[in-house]
Amino acid sequence: MTKTKAWVLAARPKTLSASLVPIVAASGLVRGTGYEFQWWIVVFALLASFCIQIGTNLVNDAMDFKKGADTVDRVGPIRVTQQGIFSFKQVMFAASLFFFFAACFGIPLVIHGGWPIFGIGIVSILMGYAYTSGPMPLAYYGLGDLFVILFFGLIAVGGLFYLLTGIYNLQAFIVGLQIGFLSTILIAINNLRDLKTDQLVGKKTLAVRLGLTGSRFWIGFLIFAPFLTGYYWLVVQKWWVYIIPLLAFPLGMLIAKRIFRTEPSAEYNRYLSLAAGYSLVFSILLAIGFQI
Questions:
Q1: Phi, psi at residue 285, to the nearest 5°?
Q2: Is 6 inside any structural domain?
Q3: Domains: count for the chain
Q4: Cβ proximity of 22 and 29 under 8 Å
Q5: Do 131 and 53 touch, CB atoms closer than 8 A?
Q6: For residue range 51-86, what is the model confidence (pLDDT) as tens digits?
Q7: Hey, is 103 helix, strand or coil?
Q8: What distance in Å separates the CA atoms of residue 285 and residue 188, rounded to the nearest whole number?
Q9: Could you tell me the pTM of the whole model?
Q10: Which of 127, 183, 205, 271 is the most exposed place for a label (fewest CB within 10 A)?
Q11: Residue 160 covered by a domain
Q12: Maximum C-alpha span of the chain
């Protein structure tokens, strides 16, 4: 394996849909509600979001190895620190570099959006480190799912909506909640796959706390929760915003069915790809719904 390919694997490109999805959904909401749309804001927000997520993934790669969570028995994709491809220090340096890039991409956004965006950016970078590092790593205390709902849903959608409109409203909150649930499916499947190995090293993810059956029902809830939350759009008579995303429903059903019928194993890596596709398709359909 070349060094370049190893770094690409370490960045976990399949997970980057979690950064793209809130951008797509928030952009659709802004365009559909008649506000002026500025592409440069969307581009810089997307680049900053990608860098924060890659940085978080790299910290996770290094710290899970250091804490003993990644061993030769793991069934997930290759982790470059555990495999000895790169050293702990090399991976942590790369993570810091991506967080630095995120800050650079965030500077124009802070100039445009002011102190609220500065606060969001600083906290997002700090939480990227705190996800698996620091005195109380979120992922090791079962707070990873809440982290994703908050930062890849409510804050990501709300932050971009504020940058593009100068306001924050209930519609942005509802979209943020829908996207947060969708993005959390990825981490929930990932943690269920690693349930046994995480138990052995005391990594108390939500999957470890809920157990096999509870985790399956949690994933099932996350798959259907965007439609439950979406009843808001029916109440405010934005029918197409609810109806068009229903086209993604069969894919969600397929993921739920396979999770309930398959024991945690390497097979779950395929379900992660399906979940990434599900969240992206839903967000695109949601954005289309706002245009009608």
A1: -65, -35
A2: no
A3: 1
A4: no
A5: no
A6: 999 999 999 889 888 877 666 566 667 788 888 889
A7: helix
A8: 23
A9: 0.93
A10: 127
A11: yes
A12: 55
